[in-house]
Each structure stands twice: as C-alpha cells, then as structure tokens.
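To: structure subgroup
Subject: Chain for Friday's discussion

All,

I'm putting the inputs and outputs inline so they're searchable in the archive.
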Amino acid sequence: MHKIFHFHLTIAIILFISLPLWAQPKRAFIWFDDEDYQPLIYRDDKGRSEGIFYDVLTEAFKRMQIPLQNRLYPWSRTQEMVQNGDADGMVTIFTKTRQKFFKATDPIVTVEERVFLNKNNPKAKQILHTKSVKNLKYFTIAETTSSGWSKENLKKMHIIWVPTAESALNMIASGRADIYLMSNYSGPIFIKKQIQKGTPLSKSLKEVIMGNYAFATMKYRLLIRKNSPYVNIINQFNETLRQMQKDGTYKKIMERYKIEMTYDSEKY
C-alpha cells in the first residue's frame, strides 16, 4: 500500500515539475520593445531587430524550445500595448508601478545611469562632482515623459518633460537644461547618431560629455504580464540565462556590442 502511495506521489511530483513545459500555449511568446535603444534593442539599417536584448532572448527561447515573436515600436507605444495585453512582455526596469502588472526574470543586462551635459555649461564642474541623486535638485533636468524610473526617483526635481530622447539631448546641447540622464551603454551611441544627422545643433552636440558617476544601476529584466499564459516560464528562463552565462554564450553576445566610451568626461 505504501509502495503504491509513494509511486503515485512520485508521478504527481514529476508532472507538477514538468507542468510549465507541456502546459505552455501553442502560440509564440510575443515580445514588444523599443525600436531605438541602441545597443540594447533597436532596428538595424534594414529594419530588422538587433541588439543585446534581441540576441539574449532569441538564444534563450531557442534553448527553451519556445517560439518567439518580436516587434519594435516607439517606447511609449510599446509600454501601452504590452500593458493592454497586445504582447506577453517587454524588457525594461522593474519599477514599483510595473510590479502591479508584471512578474520579472533575473537581470538580463545591468547598466549605469549617468549625467550627460554640455561641457561649456557654467555649472559643469559642479555637475561632474555631483555623486548623489538628491543633489541633482540643484540643476535643471531634461527628461522624457516615458521614463518610469525618473517619475519614481526624481520627484520634486526641476524637470522639463519632453517627448523624446532627441528633444532632451537638444535641450542639453542648446543650454536650455543642465543635464539629461542616459545609460553608459546607449548614451554615447545615441549622441553619435544625432551628430551624424547633421542638424543645426550638431556642432553643440559635439560638446556633450558623459559624467563618470553612476546615479543609478539599472537592471533590465524580461517583464511578463501576470495574466499572460507564459507567466510560468520565469524560473525556466532564469535557469537558461545562467547556463548561457556558464557556457560563455552571454559573454560573446556582450563582446559583440562592446561600447567605446568616447564621450567620457575629462577631469575637472
């Protein structure tokens, strides 16, 4: 009798553990993300998805044997569409607000949020010696309306809200704001792209530099809607990511997108 009981218990445990695998929906996991956040995620010259997020998720889902569909949109639209249920998930910061609607994987990429400023700004020395978020209150900050992190962490700061990163950067270049916070990954590349466009502010953009201090450490995770049929794959994804790190696949992806920090600030 005990043997029969233990046999059925063993079968039940096996079925419970394997449930996420065989109970997954037949359709692909739908992932929406930012179309212009190089090198993390963006469209290449031919309109195809590219970037660190894309390479990591493509490899991870291949190993998990789960079909993956990816579409890129402007970031504000992406967030709205995912939250409305048009996709299963997106890769971004797991803010308090997002915790109400999503569950998160382990970090995929960790980046530093740094200040970008015009080196001719009269406050440049003071800005570059500032090391804490609370002391950013002494400066005028340009920020995009889609930045969930800034809305949660820069409350009561003097912020000029603008629709796009390009607008924020132009505010810095033209002297209408003191700083703009961008990641040490995407910031330098984004500035180069704006300069190459040959806009009236291209010359001023060449004077924009990046500070050396990290005001925040941003952990980008795959966020999956709580009501998505794929919400049960988080542990499986985390384990797959660990395996990719152990076998060197993750390192190779990161090396492919190695960033030269050509806009590091000079010592003041």
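Points worth raising on Friday:
Confidence is low (pLDDT under 50) at residues 2-22, 261-268.
The first helix runs from residue 2 to 22.

D.
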